[in-house]
Please model this.
Amino acid sequence: MGTHPNVPATLSSNTSTTLAQHLTSNPKLVGDKVNEKFEVKDGNLPFLFKVLSIGTALSIQAHPDKKLAERLFKDHGDIYKGTYSPLGRNTFLAIRLSCWRIRWP
Model:
């Protein structure tokens, strides 16, 4: 659903074209304000889009602080490629798509 290189989205009208390729050819689709603020390059969006289902157990994610992220990216860029942002921050937005209740044993 996004432009992450490990699982890039493709266009429904042309599945051989990735979303990043399409955004590179059409940078106005991202918007001038986003392009200016985040310096969007190569069609990559400045966020990682995720859809999580609470119908099953969720994985736990641990995000390093900026100093550790820089070191991991420098020392192991082959493993951590695409996961370090020089902006040093993550922005999260959660939207509930359906009703749910928490059941406790």
Remarks:
- The CA atoms of residues 1 and 50 lie 8 Å apart.
- The mean pLDDT is 75.
- The chain is about 25% helix and 0% strand.
